[in-house]
Amino acid sequence: MHRTESLPPARFSAQNRSRALQAGIMDLILERDLKPGDALPTETELTAALGIGRNTLREALKVLQALGVVEIRHGFGMFVAPANFDALADGLTFRGRLSLRHEGKEALQLVDVRQALESGLIGEAMDLSSDEHLAEIEATVEQMEALAERGESFTEVDERFHYQLFEPLGNELLSNLMSVFWKVYRKIHIELGGDPLINLRETAAVHRGIFEAVRSGDKELASERLRRHFDGIRKELDKLRDAG
Length: 244
Hints:
71% of the residues lie in helices and 3% in strands. It has helices at 9-31, 43-50, 54-66, 86-99, 105-128, 131-149, 155-166, 172-191, 200-216, 219-228, 231-243; strands spanning 70-73, 77-80. By secondary structure, it is mainly α. It has two domains: 9-80, Arc Repressor Mutant, subunit A (Orthogonal Bundle); 86-243, Four Helix Bundle (Hemerythrin (Met), subunit A) (Up-down Bundle). Residues 1-7 have low confidence and may be disordered. Helix 1 packs across helix 3 and helix 9 (200-216) runs antiparallel to helix 10 (219-228). The protein has eleven helices and two strands.
C-alpha cells in the first residue's frame, strides 16, 4: 500500500469545512451587492451571520486575502478587494515552471491559451482599430527596430506591442489575462535557459510582419503570424516532451 494515499478523513473534512466557509463569505459579499472597495461587515457581524468563531473567521479571511477576494487593512477594516491577478500569475507561473522539471505539459498548455487568445481575437480588434491607433502601434514597432539595431533588448516594448494590438476591444479582463500570461511566458522562457530576444533583429521583424498584416486588414494573415509567433517556445517545450 502506498503511504501517500488520500488525506486522513479528519483533515479532509476540515479542508471541506474551510472551503465551505470561504464560499459562504463570498456568497455574503454577493448577496449584499458589495463592490470592490466596499467595506465588509465587521468581524462581530460576520461571526454572527456565519455561525462561527472569530479565529475560524480570521483564518478564512486570510485565505481569501491571498486569493485576491478580500483586502484587510489593519487599523481600517476589511474590504472587497479590487481586481488583482497577482495570485493567478503566481500560481500559473509556479505550475508552468514545475512542469518544466518533467515534460512541460502545463507550460505548453499556458502557451496554447495565450496563442488562442491573441490569434483568435485579433480580427475583432482590427475591426475597431483607427488610423491613429495603428500609428501608435507602428511607433512601438519602430522603437523595437531602433533598439534592435543598437543591440538593446526591448522586453517592455514587446509587451506594450501586444497590449496595443487588443486595446481597441476595451476588454479589461482580457488585458489583465494577457498581462498574467506575459509574466508566465517570460518566466518559462528564462527557466528554459533561453532568451526570446537573443536575435533582436529577427524578433523585431516578426513584430513588423504582424503589424503589416494588421494594417493591411488581412485578418487571416494577422492571425497566422500571431500564431506562428509562438513557434520558438513550442519547439523548446517539445524537446522536453521528447526527452521525457
